[in-house]
Amino acid sequence: MPHDAVFAMVCCQNGSEPAVKAEVAKDGWRLAFSRRGFVTLKHEDVPKGLPRGVFVRTAAWSLGMVKGEDFATNSEKLLEVLLSGGRRERFDQLHVWPRDRVPVGKFDFEPGIDEISRLVGEELAATLRDRRLLRGELNAVAKPGERVLDVVLIDPAQWAIGWHDVPRLSGAAAAKMVARTWPGGVQPLEPPGEVISRAYYKVAEAIAWSGLEMEPGDLAVEIGSSPGGACGLLLEKGLRVVGIDPAEMDPEILAHPIYQHVTAQAGDLPLSRYHGAKWLLVDANVRPDQTLATVERIVTDREHTIEGILLTLKLGGVEHADRIPGWIKRVRQWNAHDVRVRQLARSKIEVCLTGRIKR
Prior knowledge:
Layout: E1 7-11, H1 17-25, E2 29-35, E3 38-43, E4 58-67, H2 71-83, E5 93-98, H3 115-130, E6 147-155, E7 158-165, H4 171-176, H5 199-210, E8 219-223, H6 229-236, E9 240-244, H7 251-254, E10 259-262, E11 279-282, H8 288-299, E12 308-314, H9 324-332, E13 336-342, E14 350-357
Parallel strand pairs: 5-6, 8-9, 8-11, 9-10, 11-12
Antiparallel strand pairs: 1-3, 1-4, 2-3, 4-7, 6-7, 12-14, 13-14
Helix pairs in contact: 5-6
């Protein structure tokens, strides 16, 4: 990191900016500029690293902003920024994406690369290659050790410019940093067919980021499985799945040969119903305390076989983010370790908590 890199830019969910500002303040970061889904921060000292937190989807060292009437103007201004001060750094990858201009799910909005950012990225990649400033591709998943040029379309005519490195890590540590490899921190995913619900994408991101080694043949139990989005992803990965939910499931999921449905409330089932399961997932539309009480009953049973948990905890509003440390403390009392919490890119006003259970 150069000595003058005291500004950083963060992308988050539209509406999560207050939570971002609060959680990065403890590391010395202060607000510089903010728009819905996008925040720039200033550090008065030399920061230890990029801003991090539950609500930070992705972060980069900020090089500033450009604003013009057309692509050519912004492109020239961007080149001026990259070449200022005699710099001529080459980047391994180029990531271009828009900020979340509305909350996830509103007007069917989903985060990630849209048509405008794709077109801007293609033109910009060609310009950078002509100047020999870009070695890699546009919006490809970055590899460990690579340097990424980040361009966020705050609006089509206003771009925020930054960069970040992908750490050279492996195993669970690499999984924790996996969002740094994805354009805009949104996992590129192409399902083999139509997905049943957003839960498909949520559980895919949660598995990748948690580092939980879910293998074909493992038994997973999902509480709150209807209509079957998460189950669909697990079944694609070859896991055996038990879904627990009194609500209806998608017919394709019900017909799957390694899926079993239990039409009941999780708390009404005997603990023996969970024996043999390696993974426990919960995405029920109930209060976090109720979710945690249900899971606690299962993983504190002497005969439980659970090795990892993946829980969706409904916030009810980002103003309740101060409850998260208490949830983490409670989960650790279950003999859990590697407990992580993140607001997933495609989740709504909720967080994902994952952890490994020692037996």
